[in-house]
Amino acid sequence: MNPYAKRLMWPVLILVALIVVNIAATGIDFIVPSVNDGRLGGAFVNILRRSAPLMLIALGMTLVIATKGIDLSVGAVYAIGAAIACQMIIGQEDQSAAGLIFSAVALALIVTAVIGAWNGTMVAYFGIQPIVATLILMIAGRGIAQLITGGQIPKVQDSSPFTQIGRGEILTIPVPIWIAALVFVAIALLTRKTALGLLLESVGGNPEASRLAGIRSKGITVLVYLVCGLCAGLAGLIGAANLGSADANNGGLWIELDAILAVVIGGTALLGGRFYLLGTVIGVVIIGTLDDTIINVGLSSQWQFTAKAIVVFAVALLQSSEFRGWILKPFKPKPEIAAPAPAEEVPAK
Amino acid sequence: MSTETLTERPSRSTLFDGLTRYIPIGATVVLLLVMYLGGIANFRNFDSPQVVAGLFIDYAPLLVIAIGMTFVILSGGIDLSVGSVMAFSTMACAWLTVDSGVSAPLAMVLVLAFGTLWGLLIGAVIHYFSVQPFIATLVGLFLFRGLTLQISDTDVSMREVDFWQWGMTHVEFGGKVRDGGFWLPYLSFVAFAVVIVAFVVLHYTRFGRGVYAVGGSEQSALLMGLPVARTKIGVYAISGFCASLAGVLAAFATKSANPLANVGAELDAIAAVVIGGTLLTGGAGFVLGTVAGVMVWGLLNTLIAFHGGLSSWWARIVMGVLLLAFILLQRFLARSGEKRRT
């Protein structure tokens, strides 16, 4: 088995197990999509649709983590993106004007990209630890989002085409799934079909060695944070469009933790270097399915946090080689006989 | 040098030598004075001593959490679970005393012991299994929020239990507030005690020196023969204890438990620690700096409350700006330190 498939094996097995549990609990309808009113539905499609914002953020986070960084500000950036778009749209008389929607979306994306670039600049050029550099916006970001909305929750009219970003469908497939899929394909092509992915892994592995090898590691670092900010902004737009409103306080709350969790479940280590985009996708679907599974097997929704904690704990331990060594020690064949053997062999060498 | 610009932990052997290490905490103290004098100049009644005393009432739980966080951050780690552990501790106090009929002092001891044990466990996982502190403490963040919600998803009142009246029993100093005096409840004195004990432990004991050494360089500390395992596990136990103690203080202060209380308290604590001059990479900082950092956060909110016209989200924005300023200041000092040596 090649190492890439080996990395993906565990996440895929967990996902399959979750799906089997769900099918056992609710029947085969869970996985089989249905078409209602010219729109793809069904429990699993809904999970995918709801997971789209997390998917976008987790993809951006994968790139950041690949460079040995982390972006804690994505939840706040999500709220800022949502706030900008909604606030701009409700300020106008005609909330359905195509030009208005377009400029609102464009402005939100530009601002969130700039925020991402700012994070990247702090990390690359000021030499600040990623966790610290992005902590600043994690703390201040929701305040900024509230500043934009004036402390209110702006509500966009349901008739506005803006809501279609979250609720609509193209060729019967929900728009959020389209967006997430397009972003995934774009990032996958950029990183796997060009040298960019290799450069990313190089920067994550050893920035100084990369620089000496002629890679502009600082530029690449800024770029990945920019992409991560952009993804967070896009996720905020989908979330806001789906709800038709932007809640600066609770929109995208803890999504940064879910995103980091998805990346880690997907097999990308927080230590930088190798990254697995497909693993992240599976990680996101696992998290999305987990929430539904808890309801489907009859547990109260309060179990969601606890279940997530158990998953994080299990994944963290399974990825620790020390833990694997410790837990497997009793199963190792006869260590007491194997132990003195090397000592006797030393003189022979 | 660009070597350390992207790596997780910049080399900082030359950082903060001599008087330079007092610059960040000095800046925090100056900032505090400016904020306080600005408040006096602009608002009537701001010069009442009760304004300052109030900080130690409203922010006593945050102060206790931030003290525990100082130990963890100094050792080069981070603890994201404190907000959830705190909320869980408050809820557990309510549940044990109101629903299960456990006597209140016993409930308090149980909660504190549990928080400490949890810290020990997570510290052991971090040290022996090399799990990153960020991920390992994330478990606590989710787990205890979940457990808190499972105990109760609505507020639980503890008003009927006499024991919880103790914390807000207060002592007056210099007469009534309107006569220029001020009062402090017992729970503030608990917070003071934590500060004093933490100060002594961190600056005057072998364990405290070990915390700095491990935060400076774990490898070097190990080679020097310092008990790295004990130190690393110890700081998480301290943080767990502080978080559960903060939960008990919150139970005293509000006499009720809210399952969604203290969401994001870990961020406030981390911000207070950094503004107090502690390096987030570990190895440099002071307990009293953290006290100053918490006071900055409290005074900021007090100023906004006095102003009346500003919304509370300004506090977060200003906190972010301050955080940025302090981090850049630390960076600048670190760089000039490196330049002097080379």
Describe the protein's architecture and organization:
The complex is a heterodimer of chains A (about 350) and B (about 350). Chain A has about 350 residues and is mostly helical. Helices cover about 70% and strands about 5% of the residues of chain A. In chain A, a hairpin with a 2-residue loop joins strand 1 and strand 2. In chain A, helix 12 (about 275-295) runs antiparallel to helix 13 (about 305-320). Chain A starts with a helix and ends with a helix. Residues about 340-349 of chain A have low confidence and may be disordered. Chain B is mainly α. Chain B has a single domain (about 10-335), classed as ABC transporter involved in vitamin B12 uptake, BtuC, CATH 1.10.3470. Chain B is about 70% helix and about 5% strand. Chain B has helices at about 5, 25-40, 50-60, 60-75, 80-100, 105-130, 135-150, 185-205, 205-215, 220-225, 230-255, 265-275, 285-305, 315-340; strands at about 155, 170-175, 180-185, 255. Chain B has a two-stranded antiparallel ribbon with strand order 1-4. In chain B, a hairpin with an 8-residue loop joins strand 2 (about 170-175) and strand 3 (about 180-185). In chain B, helix 5 packs across helix 11. The radius of gyration of chain B is 20 Å and the shape is globular. The termini of chain B are close together. The relative contact order of chain B is 0.20. The interface between A and B is large, with 60 and 53 residues.
